[in-house]
Amino acid sequence: MLITGGNGQLAREMTEVLQTEHLVRSLDSSQLDVTNKGQVWNELISWNPEVIIHAAAYTQVDLAESNPQQAFEVNALGTRYIAEIGEMLGAKFVYISTDYVFDGSKASYYEEHDSPLPINTYGWSKRLGEVEALQSCSRSFVIRTSWLFGIHGRNFVQKILDLATRQRELSIVHDQIGSPTHTLDLARAIAFLMHTERYGIYHFASLGHCSWYELAEKALHLKKSTTTCLPCMSNEYPTVAARPKNTPLSSIKLQQLGFGPIPHWEIALQAYLERMEQASRLPQT
Ligand SMILES: NC(=O)c1ccc[n+]([C@@H]2O[C@H](COP(=O)([O-])OP(=O)(O)OC[C@H]3O[C@@H](n4cnc5c(N)ncnc54)[C@H](OP(=O)(O)O)[C@@H]3O)[C@@H](O)[C@H]2O)c1
Question: Pocket residues for ligand 1 (CB within 6 Å)?
Fold first, then answer.
């Protein structure tokens, strides 16, 4: 199995989950730049993987607004290069996508048949990546996920906990709603799906939904932090890129395929914090 974007938060989790049972080759951006067609060709031909987990992505949502070319090159064009060679090799191809392909105007959970309509450059580049994946490789899985946190990378929860060590009070956005997801649960869902031949689009996120404020407050509570969390509105903290207001994802299609149980986001958060605790107790090398 070959994993792209090997230094990323999800790629590292995927590598750990898969290598207990499979031969896994994870390539970081210095070993495989997905926008370099020649390099993509050489690496994929030499490794000849049965499954490609394409976790490399341009993920800087705000920077993408001033850097659209790079965002589209990595997320769309790079995806096409990998998917085309995956098709040629007869490999299964897993493309990770995002809740940001939706405009956030739906009042309930997004399902796979809902129409994407991104409202920022990152979202458009990821949507185009979905199209490239599905058009270029007949064995493509497109897995949309949201609000990731994991032990291998910087994420919102970790930023909040870091801030709480320095600040007594934090104002956090309460009018953006989504489904926080532990990378470990996502990695297990991907591992399940890639053993099937049920190609197409899937959503995977923890059960339930919350605002960024509710997520921050829960994390601080579980860590017994004395820092206070205050709700605020998005327009009080304008960002360069617009954010969709309501993007909880329904994972019902995956559940109907037999995957589960999927934890509620509060349980997933607790599991993540416990893993962080354990990791911090390990001797540093
Ligand atoms: N994080 C979230 O909350 C979230 C939510 C929904 C969906 N997703 C999707 O989930 C996937 C994994 O996200 P993540 O959180 O693991 O992201 P991440 O930690 O930012 O990892 C992305 C990796 O892609 C690599 N990369 C960037 N450009 C590349 C290129 N040209 N060639 C090869 N590798 C390149 C980066 O390499 P460097 O280390 O060298 O920069 C980085 O290691 C992405 O597809 C993302 O869109 C993420």
Answer: 4-5, 7-11, 29, 32-35, 55-59, 74, 78, 96, 98, 126, 145-148, 153
Q: Nearest C-alpha to atom 17 of ligand 1 is from which residue?
A: 8
Residue 80 lies in a domain: yes
Residue 270 maps to a domain: no
Number of domains in the chain: 1
Predicted confidence (pLDDT) per residue in 143-177, tens digit: 999 999 999 988 999 999 999 999 999 999 999 99
DSSP code, position 142? E
Domain of 61 in residue numbering reads as 2-155+179-208+248-263
The CATH number assigned to the domain holding 99 equals 3.40.50.720
Percentage of residues in the chain having pLDDT higher than 90: 96
CA of 241 to the centre of ligand 1 (A): 18
**Which of 2, 27, 59 maximizes ligand 1 atoms within 8 Å of its Cβ, making it the mutation to test the pocket?**
59
* 27 part of a folded domain: yes
Q: Is residue 258 part of a domain?
A: yes
Token reading at 23: 């031969």
Residues involved in catalysis: 122
Bond into 283 cis (ω within 30): no
